[in-house]
Amino acid sequence: MDTPELIQTTLEVTDGVALIELRNAGRRNAWNGRMAGEYRWLLHHCDERADVRAVVVTGAGDDFCVGADFRELESIGETASYERPRAIPPAPFPDRADESLRRNHMYPLTLSVPVIAAIQGGCAGAGFVVSTYADFRVVDGAARVSSSYAGLGLPAEYGIGWMLPRIMGTAQSAVILLDNEPHSGSDVYRMGWAQYLSEGTGSARARAVELATRIARSSAPSSIAMMKRQLYVDAWREATEAYVRSVSDMDAAVGSADFRRSVAARRKGERVDFRTVEPKEPQT
């Protein structure tokens, strides 16, 4: 299936960076089934495109995403089930995706490209899930971030209780989950949920694009693909298994085109610009 018609998202690719914008006009980018389907398909195609080396996801206007559209929440309450008919058939997982990560909201972790969330304004509920499953986060100091689950009588959704402690530790995860009041961008940066703090309203997007461009330019696509698997799959295995697999990765890397290009450039006192469009090497 090709990318569906984009109604609640937009995509722009510049200098190796794909900018995905969540867009639900008049509803502060509230999340719904249509937006979810479009977002996953855009990630799928960004992963396959040779001209995309990094992805930034953000919200249109003043907010990132304030959570699920209340019209859908009411429907969920009426049926007492999260299961809803899909507005769009889901994009397939990459062939290399480990079985442990083949869960809908973990989709960004299976990609060969980094996904960076740029957070401004309100970020709650479903928006909190989307940004938590990015590889890292850039947040405006004035942003307002809340998991929001406790205020709705809900548990930590979609494996967030597993993911959060791996980002920010158990105690800080408890604060952001159990205290339902919004936390400032400065607070969630201090707590470790966000990795970059951008002062100035609306500045997170520009900072995230700057970081993504730097990664796209200076980091080999094959290295990023292997490192993401090491971070999200190998890191939870026994140390010996992770070590042995890393040595196997090293042996594979020294035979790669990315390695050969880099060594040749260093001999000339130069550095490779990895935004040069070449097919991404398959990773296992």
UniProtKB/TrEMBL annotation:
PANTHER family: EG:BACN32G11.4 PROTEIN, ENOYL-COA HYDRATASE. Could possibly oxidize fatty acids using specific components. The keyword Lipid metabolism applies. This is Putative enoyl-CoA hydratase. Belongs to the enoyl-CoA hydratase/isomerase family. It catalyses: a 4-saturated-(3S)-3-hydroxyacyl-CoA = a (3E)-enoyl-CoA + H2O; a (3S)-3-hydroxyacyl-CoA = a (2E)-enoyl-CoA + H2O. It comes from the Bacteria. One of its GO terms (molecular function) is enoyl-CoA hydratase activity. The keyword Lipid metabolism applies. GO terms for biological process: fatty acid metabolic process. It comes from Rhodococcus wratislaviensis NBRC 100605. Keywords: Fatty acid metabolism, Lipid metabolism.
